[in-house]
Amino acid sequence: MKIDVVSVFPEYLQPLDLSLIGRAREKGLIDLGVHDLRRWTHDVHHSVDAAPAGGGAGMVMKPQPWGECLDELVFDAGEARPRLLVTSPAGRPFTQAMARELAAEPWLMFACGRYEGIDQRVVDYAADRMEVTEVSIGDYVLFGGEVAVLAIVEAVARLVPGVLGNAASLDDESHNAGLLEAPAYAKPAEWRGHAIPPVLLSGDHGKVDRWRRDQALLRTAAARPDLLERLDPGSLDQRDRRL
Ligand SMILES: COc1cccc(COC(=O)c2cn[nH]c2)c1
Fold first, then answer.
1. What's the gap in Å between 171 CA and the centre of ligand 1?
2. Nearest C-alpha to atom 3 of ligand 1 is from which residue?
3. Element (H or E) spanning 22, and its range?
4. Measured on CA atoms in the order 85, 87, 88, 94, is the torsion positive or negative?
């Protein structure tokens, strides 16, 4: 998978070089490129923003640098087109399902907005030439899209085959079966007056699986009843319903 990120703060994306993503890059599973949008400015101040048309507070990112960036990274680089993701508070909520969807894409390009956002014509122009999705990681406003890109790239990269050593850990993680994950414990059996639930030390895998399922349902009901609403009824058995 090829991933390009365009930002006026490329150093913000340094963490992607660490840990999992770093190893995935070494293994050639992920080809990550981070680009400074100011590379496509020509004025002495390398300005990327301008006053909002129609007035109002703040600044808007000018279209010209983005256009020239897309020319160099996409249109003049060959026939292939990336899926363009613009991280924004106005975007489609990012979920594990979207992470799975994005992990299947051969090429992702992230545009990090700053200020009040990117001139809408950049999105419209790009949408005529490639798939563009505005994505939100939550209902709050950040200074810029970089933090959202870090979260999205991490969630997507760990789903790319070979990036996570033990693929099994992908099976029963939160939001995989549409439920939150059961609580996790490690030795010692007793810690500061708190014990590991005995079933987890029973060695009875059937019981352990049942207990984890019950805990996942109870946790989801408590913290995220909205997820239960969305669950496919077929995935709940008689016992589940009684919980
Ligand atoms: C592209 O336009 C804008 C405008 C304002 C802020 C940002 C940065 O992104 C976020 O704030 C965000 C992303 N997901 N949840 C919040 C982008």
1. 31
2. 117
3. helix 19-26
4. positive
- Residue in the structure block whose two tokens are 């594990």: 96
The model's pLDDT over 44-103, given as tens digits with 9 standing for 90+, comes to 999 999 999 999 999 999 999 999 999 999 999 999 999 999 999 999 999 999 999 999
Tokens representing 240 are 């589940």
Strand-pair category, 60-61 with 194-195: unpaired
What whole-number distance in Å separates Cα of residue 164 and Cα of residue 30?
12
CB-based burial label for 47 (10 Å; 0-12, 13-18, 19+): middle
Question: For residue 111, how far is its CA from the centre of ligand 1 (angstroms)?
Answer: 10
The CB of 136 under 6 Å from ligand 1? The reply is: yes
CA distance 89 to 112: 12
